[in-house]
């Protein structure tokens, strides 16, 4: 069996768009003007979960695309062209045909502008008004609402990733769009690239065309108008000609008729709002509950129509005191229902603010006095370990209401509903600090709550956010009781076929077919101190085939113990993955199971007690060139487990790695290196040789990927237990836990070494798993991604020439040539995974981390059932069918994106916390005796003294600070921060990818932490 590799193909934006339109340079910046856009498409967007071929437009009659470019100036190679709808010789004839058909179908609808005489009907009057509006806006200036909609919040640019699996609304659909507390509706008229994103063009009630993300669409009603009518509307901000004008008038007429029906339906829903809330809220007044919008619609209406469902949606979204849209609402329509206590607190504080009640003034005076005491303690104990002591102050019932209100306001979410906390918070913050601080209100609320002892200085707002559902129990008695219950359930599981949620498998279901690997060494390679060890590697040489050998990837097999019906499986599905947070970790499975002495799941746990370990083994036979020759998937037993770590392997192989880096010093002490014998080293060299050949193959296939640094914050000392959120007690805090700030790189795992070796063999296992499922026609979820979209044919060649030996391109260089990077997605087909170099048809099925990722465990259950079916002589179908897998792919994708967004905010918070504390400790030359030293005993360079960054976004308005800001990546700190408006004015219009010297201006924490930068002009002239 011979597996061949294909060349990756990718097309430039120009090659992707057959129909070209010139757009006015007034409407686009110099950089934005070259981004592509399509006028209409009913096919999935590049970020859709639906797999699609490499971006090539195959049917130009079905997809009429536009490509926005800057007009040519006279004398610069040609005459400036006029705006055209489509560069198609038959377009005028096609438009006339569309008009004729619309006239025939619509009866007394709209007429072509050439036929217009005097406005006599309401539609004609609307057309006349709109036409006048267009003539008065020759500069095509956008509305104020659209400017706010297009703006960004601090640290809010990645929010759409949490809902990127929202389906794209078809052309002619009515959509409600929400962003930055702007709520609008309209009809989808097209889609395409803009500002390095795939965006929809939506015709709004003002007649404007807004560019929106599909994730901004919170409600969709298909087919408000025909696809043809939507196309005629055009995608320009304002109608560019009479055809577009006429089409938009007809669309506006239909929207007006439908919204009138919706407004009438909303009256009945509003009358039942209190009843609905009482029916769906949690019985515990402190707990949240969840409900879908459609479930509430069924309560209000027996058989709701689309209009009634939309009316229900509008009423619920307009009642944020009771109902809060979940992060996945555009996909799931899931609402979080506020606890009764929180609703009462919010209502009461709003009333006090309205009355300007003295309760608020008295609380502010008392709180500020306590906060000043805590500030002095924090300053004098900055270098001490963290401790907690009871405070002397107490709180009245009214004061506790205000405290609960302030604490509840520190909750992250997209600004898609009016925030009921904004107005009362503004009043309280003005009373506390004397000025309006809404731009960073969350930061000041957090500071105040820390000051009065409600939050610890090291409190984690992500962990404390109840919607993340972390298990924060720290009472030893409660934890011991839970562990005992789990172990008791394990011991009492006797039924061979588990039925109840407490049932485990009493014996290994695959015991009779496991392949015993005997004394073959199985190398478990991870960081020193890693807790969940779920993969091992073996090399099997073939005596009569000296150029060929087998690579075996052994993966821990929790499916041999935990059935899909077990309560731990249900909990794992909800949690999705192990969360590694700065202050503590939240494992997917409890330690009492993972490290059980006789049935433990972490590799090495049983073998050290002389017991074999259950694994699923993914094997590939490869030749000396790294080509696949054969593969196998088996249930196995490993006995000779060798625990190794990355540093010891690198030392044995003579590899020196430059990662990770520690810009603030304090590199943690490393444990002694292991003594690795030569036979093990020989196997590891063979695996490394295989890994290197995979990189060479990817480079030969025209593959590339970008390099970017990231920061990781880890605890160097323990954190005190978090205080009970339901108990507002008086506390005083001293000191702070020790942290380590390290820099890693996306490209560090691609540098030849032990991490690279492990990464490539894990990819091998995922590819073997995908082929095994595919060849047996067993449904399975695969991770996929499509190629980046270069800006031109020349850009493709430039990118290929910029690659290093690992096929990687520095991000600042890549950004100059790429206009779009499609998001990854999941599919049941073996589609391409461009990000790691897997070609179409091979596929990539994640199976290597079942102790840490729920999706991998699903794959193991599927393999288990298929192997049992094979043993019985049955057709191998697995446990789940294709329909189940497709639905699971969507659920897993949403969970994954949510966890990525949450982890990104969490890490950003702690990185900025670290930098802020560093600045406070060494400000104005203080504490120089504490300045870290390097390995040679010399003071380290100031990590904030010579910062450089490169632009990763175009400037945008920040809706809260009202400043124009642009994001800048700082490689030496591994973070992406914001350059301020004052600096941008001095710079002029920046180019994405341009490098410049920067300095830190200020840092704000809270639920949306941010660092604001300025340009260091004293160093700019030397660059």
TrEMBL record:
GO terms for cellular component: P-body. InterPro entries: NA-bd_OB-fold, RNase_II/R, RNR_Ribonuclease. This is RNB domain-containing protein. Pfam families: RNB (PF00773). It comes from the Eukaryota. Residues 514-869 form the RNB domain. One of its GO terms (biological process) is mRNA catabolic process. Coiled coil: none annotated. Residues 35-57 are annotated as: Disordered. Residues 37-48 have a biased composition (Low complexity). One of its GO terms (molecular function) is RNA binding.
């Amino acid at each position: 069996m011979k597996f061949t590799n294909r060349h990756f193909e990718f097309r430039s934006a120009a090659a992707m768009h057959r129909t070209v339109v010139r757009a006015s340079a007034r409407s686009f910046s110099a950089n934005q003007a070259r981004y592509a856009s399509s006028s209409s498409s009913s096919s999935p967007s590049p970020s859709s979960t639906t797999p699609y071929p490499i971006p090539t437009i195959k049917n130009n009659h079905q997809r009429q695309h536009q490509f926005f470019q800057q007009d040519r100036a006279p004398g610069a190679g040609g005459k400036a062209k006029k705006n055209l709808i489509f560069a198609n010789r038959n377009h005028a004839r096609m438009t006339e045909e569309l008009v004729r058909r619309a006239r025939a179908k619509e009866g007394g609808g709209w007429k072509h502008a050439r036929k217009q005489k005097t406005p006599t009907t309401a539609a004609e009057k609307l057309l006349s008004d709109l036409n006048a509006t267009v003539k008065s806006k020759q500069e095509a200036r956008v509305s104020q609402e659209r400017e706010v909609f297009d703006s960004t919040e601090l640290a809010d640019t990645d929010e759409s990733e949490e809902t990127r699996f929202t389906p794209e609304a078809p052309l002619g659909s009515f959509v409600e769009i929400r962003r930055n507390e702007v709520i609008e509706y309209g009809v989808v008229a097209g889609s395409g690239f803009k500002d390095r994103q795939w965006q929809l063009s939506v015709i709004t009630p003002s007649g404007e065309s807004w560019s929106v993300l599909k994730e901004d669409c919170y409600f969709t009603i298909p087919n408000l108008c025909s696809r043809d009518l939507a196309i005629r509307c055009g995608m320009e901000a304002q109608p560019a000609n009479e055809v577009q004008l006429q089409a938009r008038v007809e669309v506006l007429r239909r929207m007006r008729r439908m919204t009138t029906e919706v407004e009438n339906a909303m009256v009945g829903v509003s009358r039942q709002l209190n009843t609905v809330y009482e029916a769906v809220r949690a019985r515990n007044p402190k707990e949240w509950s969840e409900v879908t919008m459609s479930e509430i619609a069924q309560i209000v209406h027996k058989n709701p129509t689309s209009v009634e469902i939309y009316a229900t949606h509008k009423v619920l979204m307009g009642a944020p005191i009771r109902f809060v849209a979940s992060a996945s609402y555009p996909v799931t329509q899931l609402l979080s229902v506020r606890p009764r206590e929180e609703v009462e607190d919010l209502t009461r504080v709003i009333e006090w603010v309205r009355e300007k009640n003295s309760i608020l003034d008295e609380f502010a005076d008392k709180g500020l006095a306590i906060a000043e005491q805590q500030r002095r303690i924090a300053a004098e104990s900055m270098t001490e370990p963290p401790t907690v002591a009871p405070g002397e102050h107490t709180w009245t019932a009214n004061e506790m209401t205000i405290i609960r209100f302030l604490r509840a306001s520190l909750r992250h979410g997209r600004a898609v509903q009016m925030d009921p906390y904004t107005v009362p918070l503004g009043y309280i913050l003005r009373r506390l600090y004397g000025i309006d601080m809404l731009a960073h209100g969350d930061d000041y609320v957090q500071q105040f709550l820390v000051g009065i002892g409600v939050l610890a200085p090291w409190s984690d707002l992500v962990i404390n956010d109840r919607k993340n559902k972390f298990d924060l129990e720290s009472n030893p008695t409660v934890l011991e009781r839970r562990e005992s219950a789990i172990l008791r359930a394990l011991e009492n599981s006797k039924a061979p076929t588990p039925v109840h949620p407490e049932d485990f498998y009493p014996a290994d279901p695959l015991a009779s077919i496991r392949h015993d690997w005997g004394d073959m060494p199985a190398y478990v390679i991870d960081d020193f101190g890693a807790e969940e060890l779920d993969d091992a590697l073996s090399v099997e040489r073939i005596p009569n085939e000296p150029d060929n050998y087998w690579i075996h990837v052994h993966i821990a097999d929790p499916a041999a113990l935990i059935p899909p019906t077990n309560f731990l499986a249900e909990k794992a599905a909800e949690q999705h993955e192990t969360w590694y947070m700065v202050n503590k970790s939240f494992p997917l499975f409890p330690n009492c199971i993972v490290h059980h002495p006789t049935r433990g799941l972490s590799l090495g746990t049983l073998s050290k007690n002389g017991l074999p370990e259950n694994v699923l083994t993914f094997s590939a036979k490869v030749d000396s060139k790294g080509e696949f020759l054969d593969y196998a998937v088996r249930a196995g037993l490993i006995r000779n487990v060798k625990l190794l770590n990355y540093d010891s392997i690198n030392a044995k192989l003579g590899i020196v790695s430059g990662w990770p880096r520690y810009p603030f010093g304090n590199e943690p002490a490393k444990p002694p290196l292991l003594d690795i014998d030569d036979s093990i080293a020989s196997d590891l060299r063979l695996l490394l040789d295989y890994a290197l050949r995979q990189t060479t193959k990817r480079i030969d296939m025209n593959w590339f990927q970008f390099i970017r640094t990231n920061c990781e914050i880890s605890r160097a000392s323990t954190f005190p237990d978090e205080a009970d959120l339901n108990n507002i007690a008086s506390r005083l805090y001293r000191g702070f836990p020790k942290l380590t700030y390290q820099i890693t790189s996306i490209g560090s795992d691609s540098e030849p070494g032990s991490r690279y070796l492990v990464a490539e063999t894990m990819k091998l296992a995922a590819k073997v798993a995908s082929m095994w499922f595919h060849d047996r026609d067993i449904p399975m979820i695969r991770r996929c991604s499509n190629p980046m979209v270069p800006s031109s044919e020349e850009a493709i060649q430039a990118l290929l020439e910029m690659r290093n030996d690992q096929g990687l391109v520095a991000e600042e260089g890549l950004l100059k040539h790429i206009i779009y990077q499609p998001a990854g997605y999941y599919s049941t087909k073996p589609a391409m995974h461009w990000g790691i170099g897997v070609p179409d048809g091979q596929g990539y099925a994640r199976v290597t981390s079942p102790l840490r990722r729920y999706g991998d465990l699903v794959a193991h259950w599927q393999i288990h059932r298929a192997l049992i079916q094979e043993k019985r002589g049955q057709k191998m179908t697995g446990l789940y069918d294709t329909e189940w897998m497709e639905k699971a792919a969507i659920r897993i994708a949403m969970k994954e994106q949510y966890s990525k967004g949450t982890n990104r905010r969490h890490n950003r918070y702690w990185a900025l916390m670290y930098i802020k504390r560093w600045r406070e400790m060494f400000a104005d030359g203080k504490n120089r005796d504490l300045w870290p030293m390097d390995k040679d005993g010399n003071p380290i360079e100031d990590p904030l003294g010579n910062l450089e960054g490169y632009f990763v976004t175009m400037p945008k308005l920040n809706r809260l600070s009202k400043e124009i800001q642009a994001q800048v990546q700082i490689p030496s700190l591994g973070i992406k921060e914001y350059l301020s408006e004052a600096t941008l004015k001095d710079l002029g219009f920046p180019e994405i990818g341009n490098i410049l010297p920067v300095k830190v201006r200020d840092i704000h924490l809270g639920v949306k932490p941010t660092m604001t930068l300025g340009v260091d002009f004293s160093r700019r002239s030397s660059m």
